[in-house]
Design goal:
Shape: globular
Largest sheet: 3 strands, antiparallel
Number of strands: 5
Helix content: 40-55%
Distance between the termini: 7 Å
Length: 85
């Protein structure tokens, strides 16, 4: 399961989450959807569970769209260097 890269701090905000990479001094804000996905992964669940939670939380979001969103969010977090494999 992915985890935050060492040195990346996470805090919940009113809107979602904020991440700070202490090494690069860069920060990211995550909207509620991305925050749910990241928290689900950090809780030890896989992408499939994150997609299930998205479909349960948001009306009109089907499994295919939720799966696409989860894959995109994970890809962006990886590209930013915020996750370890």
């Amino acid at each position: 399961m992915p985890a935050l890269k060492p040195g990346v701090l996470l805090t919940e905000t009113e809107y979602g989450m904020a991440l700070l990479d202490q090494e690069s001094a860069e920060y990211w804000t995550l909207n509620p959807t991305a925050a749910l996905v990241l928290q689900t992964l950090l809780d030890g669940h896989g992408p499939e569970r994150a997609a299930e939670l998205l479909t349960a939380r948001y009306d009109g979001v089907d499994a295919a769209l939720a799966g696409d969103d989860v894959r995109r969010i994970i890809s962006e977090l990886n590209a930013a260097g915020l996750l370890t494999p």
